[in-house]
Amino acid sequence: MTTSAAAGAVDAAFREEWGRVVATVIRRTGDWDLAEECAQEAFAEALRRWPTDGVPERPGAWLTTVAGNRAIDRLRRGARGAALLEQAGREATPTPPGTDEEAMPALFHETDEIEDDRLRLIFTCCHPALPLEGRVALTLRSLTGLTTAEVARAFLVPEATMAKRLTRTKAKIVAAGIPYRVPPAHLLSERTAGVLAVLYLLFNEGYSASSGAELIRSGLCEEAIRLGRALQQLMPDEPEVAGTLALMLLHHSRRETRVGEGGALVTLEEQDRGRWDGAEIAEALALLEAALRRRRVGPYQLQAAIAACHAGAPSAADTDWGEIAGLYALLEEQMPSPVVRLNRAVAVAMAGDLGAGLAIVDELRGDVRLERYYLVEATRADLLRRRGDRAAAAAAYECALPLAPSEVERRYLSGRLREVTAGDGGEAGEAAG
Amino acid sequence: MKYLLFICGGGVPAPEDVVVLQRECSRWVEEMEGRGVRLLGRELDLPATAATVRVRDGERLVADGPFVETKEFIAGFDVLECADLDEAIEVAAKHPSSWFRSIEIRPFADGLELGEAAARFATGDDSGGTPYCLMMCLDGIAAEPEVEEAVVRDGIAWGEDLQQRGRKVLGHPLQHKDMATTVRVRDGETLLSDGPFVETKEFIGGISVISCAGREEAIEIAAAHPLARHHMIEVRPFVSE
């Protein structure tokens, strides 16, 4: 086998197996740092041995065994580790282990069916008693194998800050006694929602990155989708997991068309639908359909269903806004939030009732929770523009401008403002892309 | 694992809430003792009854009131023995204080042992003396390593001396405040947050219960603890049963 072919195999195994290897070593040793270090060493060992020995039949099992043996070697050197090994030995074998090194209990056998511990790992990383920032960072570090430096770059913080965040999060898991397990039935649905929130947050961190300088962050979308696929395989009966994956895929399918020349924002209406990723849309629609058939609709499935309405419309004009407005109403029941209501207002307006849509937006203008949220005024401006009320639209765009969070949005709003004040208000664009 | 629950108080609850609190509190104690998860717990007197003790340059400085004035304050504590944090969260979420206010869960450092004096205290038997709670308040700024070591060493000697004099009920360091989890239950939903129930510079690094003749002696015992020389100690009586 050539060195480059072996390196390719190690690379593929890294993406496939890193989380599994770390997860299993944590389960057997309870030591998070040790698990990371030994997983790292196992992959280095694979790079050395696979070119000559060939790629093992089950790379994951091979890597887990090597990482496990490294962990045992290290533990043997420490008093605490010896005690741990002895305890593991007592649990594993009826006869007490001798003092002879050879008789040390084997924590890892290559022949063992390697249990998939990733679910334990992800539920522990996303435990609600951990700081949210720590949950997100630790999920990335331990499940995807991004290095601390890479995670730090993705979240735009110095590496030392990220290292501290990861250390503190791992320390709390151990010191506060957070159990390393998949939660029992009575906690499962609530905790699953917590895991999905972390995945979706991760996805949005990447999705909001649009400029070249932020490209490293857009890799977070792929990582979130990869984790979503893994979670979907591990929890095939949980429709919200499939819903989250479908939602991420549908957003992701439009990634090439969201930003135009010079980083300008391109609204959904103006995006080139021919360049949407058909394979991702097909995967998402199949997932969503199967999920909805389970008749346990949740907020992620509803959001995916809304995104699917857009994905399925051959052109912006063919969008079934009535259906979307209905879906937003259902979403608002499950997730009452002024932002959801704002989106419903847009859908109602686009479905043909501009007045009713504007009335909802006007109500929201008094909501203190949205005081600093530019999309209220921006949406109002867009609806007024569509109604042909240019003076009022211009005033609303002017209100929205100072609240817009980034240059991309400011540029979009200024463009619209020029349009309505110049008097050639074309028919285009909702504010939210 | 052993956990300390800080029961948070504050404000004047509505009379109907007081009724619920009292009724549900006794139910909670009964259930959790039955399950063997609650080892002991007592209600503290109001923060106004507290004294904060420092020793600087050999001089004892005593101030009235708690170590930090906040709207929400520590109203009592319970010691739990739980399988893991999830069980401690479940237990805390069933305590009515978490429905109205909040409860902080803090793991003890390893090795807390509860002796006979603690068992008597748990049953409300104060025949050996009046119990006082000493809260070891740290300001989060690490001193020189030699100083920290000396504090630990002298602290152990302080505990042994107290034990010999029959004044010790219980005492043990807690895990750092970064290991704390605060539980609130609102609309039937358990809400968790990372960290103590009130974020201040000072935090409680350990807790002791002593039994003595009265406030003067309690302050004297607190002032003899090495932490009083570098940090401060809040001394507070319990609500007598």
Describe it for me?
The complex is a heterodimer of chains A (433) and B (241). Chain A has 433 residues and is mostly helical. Chain A has a domain of 101 residues: Rna Polymerase Sigma Factor, Chain: A (Orthogonal Bundle). In chain A, helix 3 crosses helix 4. The longest helix of chain A is centred in the N-terminal third of the chain and has 27 residues. The radius of gyration of chain A is 26 Å and the shape is elongated. By secondary structure, chain B is of the alpha+beta class. Chain B has a single domain, classed as Dimeric alpha+beta barrel (Alpha-Beta Plaits), CATH 3.30.70. Chain B has 7 helices and 12 strands. In chain B, a hairpin with a 2-residue loop joins strand 3 and strand 4. The longest helix of chain B is centred in the first third of the chain and has 21 residues. The radius of gyration of chain B is 17 Å and the shape is globular. The two termini of chain B are 28 Å apart. In chain B, 39% of the residues are buried. The chains are: A mainly alpha (433), B alpha+beta (241). The interface between A and B is medium-sized, with 17 and 20 residues.
Shape of chain A: elongated
Oligomeric status? heterodimer
Task: Please identify the top-level CATH class of the domain at 3-103 in chain A.
Answer: Mainly Alpha
Mean pLDDT of chain B: 92
Number of extended strands of chain B: 12
CATH topology category name of the domain at 3-103 in chain A: Rna Polymerase Sigma Factor, Chain: A
Q: What level of helicity do the residues of chain A show?
A: 55-70%
Number of helical regions of chain B:
7
CATH C-level name of chain B: Alpha Beta
Q: Total domains of chain B, how many?
A: 1
CATH fold-level assignment of chain B: Alpha-Beta Plaits
Globular, elongated, flat, extended or rod-shaped: what is the shape of chain B? Answer: globular
Radius of gyration of chain B: 17 Å
- Strand fraction band of chain B? 25-35%
Largest sheet of chain B, in brief, is: 6 strands, antiparallel
